[in-house]
Amino acid sequence: MEAKAHPGPSAADLERPLKVEQLIARNREWAKEMAEAYPGFFGSLVKQQNPEILWIGCSDSRVPANELMKLLPGEVFVHRNIANIVHTADLNSHSVIQYAVDVLKVRHIIVCGHYNCGGVAAALTNNQYGLVDHWIRSIKDVYVQHEQDLAHLSDQERLDRMVEINVERSVAAVAGSTIVQNAWARGQVIEIHGWCYRLADGRIKELGCDIKGLEDLKGVLRVAKSLKAGSPTKPGN
């Protein structure tokens, strides 16, 4: 089924501050519109979810996974956190990955960051933000390690490049997990993709750091080498 554009007013058109009653009313409108546009849609959702995609993205409200790929509810299994980080010791993200791989049998794992990411921007400063400082520490460590290599870039280019590097690192972390490697070893088809979303025009940029199997694990080394320097990738179509 092809997803249709969201009808009706946006949150900006509603009374401020927002009231819960407004949101419940909008839910009723949405459910009615979906049932009319896609007869039997909710009945199919009740039976099971069968997504082919695991989306690992940022919690930013401006980056909605389903909508920007024009997909319906039930077509994407979604995990989001600040700055789309995959830590090797993070039980949350790895539990999601395990369920997606072992139970849902997804074929694609997409790590998608976005330019002008506040989490990455925070990691490039010496400011303290509280608990989130611990979460973004890995980004800060990479930045400190390669700060001189990135010094020739403008502030915006440096932020853009670090957004990309952060995605590349998370792609490598997913590929290096025992969950994914074991799945590849038993012949399961899983492709891992690294993307960045541009808020300015709504387009996705493929970063070229895809890893598609055990034979492609050299891609992890290629990703590691790519962290050293370079300008952010040029915008694509």
UniProtKB/TrEMBL annotation:
Catalysed reaction equations from the record: hydrogencarbonate + H(+) = CO2 + H2O
InterPro entries hit by this protein: Carbonic_anhydrase, Carbonic_anhydrase_CS, Carbonic_anhydrase_sf
Enzyme class label: lyase
Protein name, UniProt field: Carbonic anhydrase
GO BP term, pick one: carbon utilization
Keywords for the protein's UniProt record, in alphabetical order: Lyase, Metal-binding, Zinc
UniProt EC number: 4.2.1.1
Organism: Rhizophlyctis rosea
Function according to Swiss-Prot or TrEMBL: Reversible hydration of carbon dioxide.
